Amino acid sequence: QVQLVESGGGLVQAGGSLRLSCAASGSIFRFNAMGWYRQAPGKQRELVATITRPGSTYYGDSVKGRFTISRDNANATVYLQMNSLKPEDTAVYYCNAKDWKDYWGQGTQVTVSS
């Protein structure tokens, strides 16, 4: 059973930074990709960033240049460094892992005040 546990969310002022962590049970090399999605109230869940098994990264247009996804293979953890945060980044952030299906964490709230 795959478990993804997120941490690092919280309240921050606009312009500030946060780092989210996603700890996976077992090796993360089993996954084709891992990433972060977010969902704001009344909106659909959207892609924030992904990192593939070979290490390629992809970002949603709204976060390019501000967010960075990375991973620590030894600790089976994926990170999302979020800089220059904006109020519109406020959402629940979910960790995702993909092999032949999708796995999701429980989500962590990020709130950016103006």
Q: Overview of this structure, please?
A:
By secondary structure, the chain is mostly beta strands. It has no helices and 11 strands. It has strands at about 5, 10-15, 20-25, 35-40, 45-50, 55-60, 65-70, 75-80, 90-100, 100-105, 110-114. Strands 2, 4, 5, 6, 9, 10 and 11 form a 7-stranded mixed beta sheet that branches. Strands 1-3-8-7 form a 4-stranded antiparallel beta sheet, with no helix packed on it. The termini are far apart. The mean pLDDT is about 95.
The H-and-E topology, N to C, reads as: EEEEEEEEEEE
How confident overall, as mean pLDDT?
95
* Tally of DSSP helical segments: 0
DSSP, total strands: 11
Rg on CA atoms, Å? 13 Å
**What distance lies between the first and last C-alpha atoms, to the nearest angstrom?**
40 Å
Biggest sheet overview? 7 strands, mixed
At a glance:
The protein is mainly β and 114 residues long.
Topology summary:
Elements: E1 4-7, E2 10-13, E3 18-24, E4 33-39, E5 46-52, E6 57-59, E7 67-72, E8 77-82, E9 91-98, E10 102-104, E11 108-113
